[in-house]
Specification:
This protein is mainly alpha-helical and 95 residues long. The chain contains five helices and no strands. The protein folds into two domains: 49 residues; 33 residues, no CATH class. It starts with a helix and ends with a helix.
Length: 95
């Protein structure tokens, strides 16, 4: 859990315990009052996991596969493309 997520969880728990108002929580987290209300409700219903980013540990859909990465690196290391900078290499090499 990141520091920002721990701060959100702390504020949400303080809100649920009645130790803090929504406006104070919004000021501490630099969020709107509406976002803090949503945070409070989410932690109340789902627990601490609510503040964690939902896409953690997943590879982006637009990311290149490892085989393509290795292929590009292997081609770049060949003598033909050795002197080309990255911009020029991109123009010369098409998958």
């Amino acid at each position: 859990m990141t520091k920002q997520e721990r701060n959100k969880l702390y504020v949400a728990r303080c809100l649920l315990d009645g130790k803090m108002t929504i406006s104070e929580g919004a000021e501490l987290l630099c969020l709107s009052e509406r976002q803090v209300q949503r945070l409070k409700k989410g932690v109340d219903e789902e627990g601490g996991v609510f503040v964690m980013h939902k896409n953690r540990g997943r590879k982006p859909l637009h990311a290149l596969s490892d085989t393509v990465k290795h292929r590009v690196v292997a081609v770049k290391k060949k003598e033909l493309y050795a002197s080309a900078n990255f911009s020029h290499f991109q123009e010369l090499f098409i998958l």
